[in-house]
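Justification of computing resources. Each target in the renewal requires a structure prediction run like the one illustrated here; the chain below, 132 residues long, is used simply to show the kind of job we budget for.
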Amino acid sequence: MPDDGLITVASAYTARETIERLLAALAAHNMTVFARIDHAAGAASAGLPLRATEVVLFGNPKGGTPLMQDRQTAGIDLPLKVLVWEDEAGQAQLSYNDPQWIAQRHGLGAHSAGAVAAMTKALQEIAKAATT
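Resulting structure tokens:
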């Protein structure tokens, strides 16, 4: 786990294709998409350039609630989110917060361990499906 808790995976697809594949993977994992934030569109509306940069907020109450039952402050990092962005070389990237980092950040205990492990596995599977 990186010190900042951020996991980044290069995508074999464009940013747009990666987002579409991400949405399909989230649906396959029975995740609810709560919001999509297109930062590039926001920048364009202000007359500012920004490469493709979109955040998708998603989750499932069965997964996140145990973390908040353990420490309600975990709610600041929930629902989960994935950032799909295009780097300087035009390569699409997918980034997300490592659930282990979230657990460490909030001092989560044994009550949350199963949910954290399940989140970790699901995010790895979702990232793989979106990028490969």
